[in-house]
Design brief:
282 residues, alpha/beta, 2 domains, binds pantoate, globular, 10 helices, Rossmann fold, 9 strands, 6-stranded parallel beta sheet, Pantoate--beta-alanine Ligase, Chain: A,domain 2, 3-stranded antiparallel beta sheet
Length: 282
């Protein structure tokens, strides 16, 4: 595995590989890799000639009061895990390399961001779309891999690729969970021990709502209330949102039909967790 820190070198390597018609699977991350990321890397390994992993904690997608400074980082551990997944190139640029000066152009996401995390994190998805646009220009991936835990991010990137005619296939990969159901996340390490114990109720509440939905409960307000009650009963976390929308359009639904997402975010002492389930209703 080769570690690359400059855009120039990364682009030169990609140009050489592309001239040999190699397919490139790209997994963008902010590091502190967990099994969810390893699943993306594994899938990329199976489907492409080359795998490029990026590790970059992107300041542009963090609000002024968010956890940019506290975001967990451990490059040596990540490097070993990436080697274990047979990554070919690890792109690890510094902030000054990606943003040497104030950007004169940023990507603004106009749709799918006025709800869920976009609503409580203004500017977050503009930061994500901007860095992903830069990465796609640097790495020219054949396929890019994203986890469905960040379902709104997947919806936004789907829009970005489609609206800007980017020649990349988006591969959205199922959520990887701990044995007790908690969605794997780099941020889980920031849960207090007592919070970690009760955090699986997030997924349990989504499962309960999904079961009720498939048993015929058609009222989104009741489903949302069911989830809120379960979380409030088990945890001291502060519910940021529990919502149900069409997916990937993320529009409110008069009637629960088609593909829908039930999504939630809960703030704990030092960390805010998200989870979701995406389901089809005939
Ligand atoms: O999902 C993440 O880790 C980040 O939002 C991403 C896609 C790497 C962009 O910085």
């Amino acid at each position: 595995m080769k570690i690359i820190t400059t855009i120039k070198e990364m682009q030169a390597i990609i140009a050489a590989q592309k001239s040999q018609e190699k397919s490139i699977g790209f997994v963008p991350t902010m590091g502190f890799l967990h099994e969810g990321h390893l699943t993306l890397l594994n899938r990329a390994r199976q489907e492409n000639d080359l795998v490029v992993l990026s590790i970059f904690v992107n300041p542009l997608q963090f609000g002024p009061k968010e956890d940019y400074a506290e975001y967990p980082r451990d490059f040596e551990r990540d490097r070993a895990l990436a080697e274990g997944e047979k990554v070919d190139f690890l792109f690890y640029p510094a902030v000054e390399e990606m943003y040497p000066h104030e950007l004169s152009v940023k990507v603004t996401v106009q749709d799918r961001t006025d709800v869920l995390c976009g609503k409580s994190r203004p500017g977050h998805f503009d930061g994500v779309a901007t860095v992903i646009t830069k990465f796609f220009n640097i790495i020219s991936p054949t396929r890019a891999y994203f986890g469905k835990k960040d379902a709104q991010q997947v919806a936004v990137i789907e829009g970005l690729i489609s609206d800007f005619n980017m020649p990349v296939d988006l591969v959205a990969v199922d959520i990887v969970r701990e044995n007790d159901g908690l969605a794997k996340s780099s941020r889980n390490v920031n849960l207090l021990p007592q919070e970690r114990q009760v955090a699986p109720v997030l997924y349990q509440s989504l499962q309960a709502a999904e079961a009720a939905l498939h048993e015929g409960e058609q009222n989104p307000i009741k489903l949302i209330e069911m989830i809120r009650e379960m979380i409030n009963k088990e945890t001291n976390g502060e519910i940021d949102y529990v919502q149900i929308y069409s997916y990937p359009q993320l529009k409110p639904l008069e009637k629960l039909e088609g593909t829908i997402i039930i999504a939630l975010a809960v703030k704990f002492t030092k960390v805010r967790l998200i989870d979701n389930t995406i389901t089809n209703i005939d």
